[in-house]
Specification:
Length: 254
């Protein structure tokens, strides 16, 4: 009886570990409404709670903006400019960002999807959080209007850039009411982070980010794997669990 219980416990533990040992990076790229719904459902599905900060009362220009939970600066230093609540180019019916926005003029070298985007990173924005996060989403306007190939990137703590948007033709990022507005998000449950960098590499274009900033801290390994395949360690544990179940069946047969 004790041996049977031990085998069952090992199998159950292995199966649990196989399902919970994922380390995942996920992204969202969609229209404002659907993108936000995807962000919220991903956070709640991982057992997290999202915070939401609508950008209001931003200064007309500043080198640093304190939003309480986080501070906004230009990644390479310099002045940021408030572009207000942005009316999405080409939208019908007319659509707007949910709050004010900050303008970004992508600059640097190389551009247009020729590398991992780090060459234009300093022209973007950095959000520095007082408490750790590993999930963030927001609205982007006036993008995919020119200068393709044009990519959008998010990086946590200056780690490897995560591409959250890719435009190869004029208008292919006109997602919100047919206008130049997309919701982008990134999740990385491999760790906890305090800074988020956002930028684009389409030199010559003009884009804005903001509206409402959505963020959360998820437990490490709480996201489902993005390809549905367990990691090697999980597969090994799963194998141990199945072996235990097989041994238990053989004992019952004997």
């Amino acid at each position: 009886m004790k041996k049977t219980l031990l085998a069952s416990t090992l199998a159950a533990s292995a199966l649990f570990a196989a399902g919970s040992a994922n380390a995942t990076i996920l992204t969202v790229y969609n229209d404002f409404t659907t993108g936000l719904a995807n962000f919220n459902s991903t956070v709640s599905g991982a057992g997290g709670t999202a915070s939401h900060d609508t950008w209001t009362n931003l200064p007309s220009s500043a080198t640093s903006i304190n939003r309480g939970d986080y501070v906004v600066t230009k990644t390479g230093g310099g002045t940021m400019y408030n572009e207000g609540v942005y009316q999405l180019w080409g939208s019908s019916p007319i659509a707007y960002t949910s709050g004010q926005t900050i303008g970004i003029n992508p600059a640097g070298s190389p551009a247009h999807g020729l590398d991992d985007g780090t060459g234009t990173k300093n022209s973007g924005l950095t959000l520095t959080f007082a408490s750790a996060i590993n999930s963030i989403g927001f609205e982007v306007g006036d993008w995919a209007t020119c200068c393709q190939i044009s990519n959008l990137y998010i990086s946590f703590d200056n780690n490897t850039p995560i591409m959250v948007g890719n435009s190869t033709d004029y208008g292919d990022g006109f997602l919100t009411n047919g206008g130049a507005g997309v919701f982008v998000a990134a999740f990385d449950d491999t760790g906890d982070f305090h800074t988020v960098q956002f930028w684009g590499d389409g030199i010559g274009e003009y884009l804005v980010m903001g509206g409402t900033i959505h963020y959360a801290l998820l437990e490490q390994g709480s996201l489902p794997p993005d390809n549905g395949v367990p990691e090697p360690a999980s597969l090994a544990l799963l194998g141990i669990g199945l072996m235990g179940l097989g041994a238990m069946r053989r004992r019952k047969t004997a």
